[in-house]
Amino acid sequence: MHTRSAKSNPRAAQLAFFQRMGVGQQFRLLFEHLSDVHFFAKDTDGRFVAAGAGLLTRLGFSREEEILGLTDADIHPARVVRDIRADDLRVMQTREPLIDRVEALFTRSNAKDWYVTTKLPIIDARGEVIGIMGFVRPYRRESNVVPGAARLEAAIAHIQANHRETIGIPELAEIAHFSVRQLNRRFQEVFGMSAQEFIVRTRVQAASDELLQTEKSLSEIAMAHGFYDQSAFTRQFSQHTGETPLKFRQRHQQTGSAADKV
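Request: output the structure for the sequence above.
Response:
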């Protein structure tokens, strides 16, 4: 009898099956076995209501309870928070998913890397949007899913290996087998910035690692990562993160100390 009912009305059978699962969020267990998939869910105010093991590790937390109730403002620099929140609101307002967005995310333990983010709205039983859910994956391991990214790999690798030196855009175009115009257009399509901006962002990311992991002075870090001087470093760092290098270092030292006490 049950088999005939399932065949005649599969949608009803599906609903009955999920109702039997209750509210234990069993599907979330799948994400715990995907090491490169960092799952998260937030309410409409941007407060975390769920986080997978991968996300917790990337952000420097040991237990999910430590992140519940926090927002991105408690974790990322102001400029990054602004972009993340704008994407969250857009997804919740339009109810359209955001698929494979490439973005630079700063973390407590490692401030340098690019990630691919996917977000979908969370809709309750009454049809109202109550939040957003999604997952983040390392960009380099997932670049094949980003349209147009594969042909940039050689240029990106060159930037990451030589960001401390002067890098000419014509040089990058030749490496990627593009014209200068084509190269910049492709960087805009994939990363939302020009090739030159990508170079500066890479320097900022590398420098932010040094800010977190060493006690070097700002001038030492500036010169080590291709900036003309400390003033240029501070200006570019502030433009890309929304805070000065000194404030970035102090804020992460404070949050790191607080996390150690939890």
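The CA atoms of residues 204 and 237 lie 6 Å apart.
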